[in-house]
Amino acid sequence: MSDKNGTVGGKPDVEALREDIKQTRAELGETVQALAAKADVKARAKEQVEVTKANVKAQVHDATEKVRAAAGSAATVASEKVAVASEKVRAATSQAGDKVALAQDKVRESGALDKAGEAREQVRRNPIPFAAVVAAGAALVGIILIVRGRRK
């Protein structure tokens, strides 16, 4: 039978030994590279920095997208509110115009403008009664002030 080297009768097979050595060298090379990578603090720090940079860039991109979405929705809401407000202003303006027109009609119907015009013409024709009314009013105000001054 063969022993653990794969030889028959106790003599090692040269080819099998060479293959075994070759495999051991390859495994040893991989182990040395792994140990060197673990021992290379500078390279590991650079890798960690690159990973952290990638994470931060992703977070910034996500935050930027969220801000853009929020700004877009805020602009939409604002434009909708402006449209509603402008419609309310239009309606109020229309109502105010209607009320002014109604008031003008009522003034015309009541004849207040005609009466005011007649009073103006009467004062122009005969200013003395108007001046007498103004003088009487001034005298009344003067008397009231004098009486109040004496009471104090």
From TrEMBL:
Domain of life: Bacteria
Coiled coil: 14-66
The UniProt record lists the keyword Transmembrane helix: yes
Segments crossing the lipid bilayer: 128-147
Organism: Winogradskya consettensis
InterPro entries: DUF3618
Keyword vocabulary terms for this entry: Coiled coil, Membrane, Transmembrane, Transmembrane helix
Protein name in UniProt: DUF3618 domain-containing protein
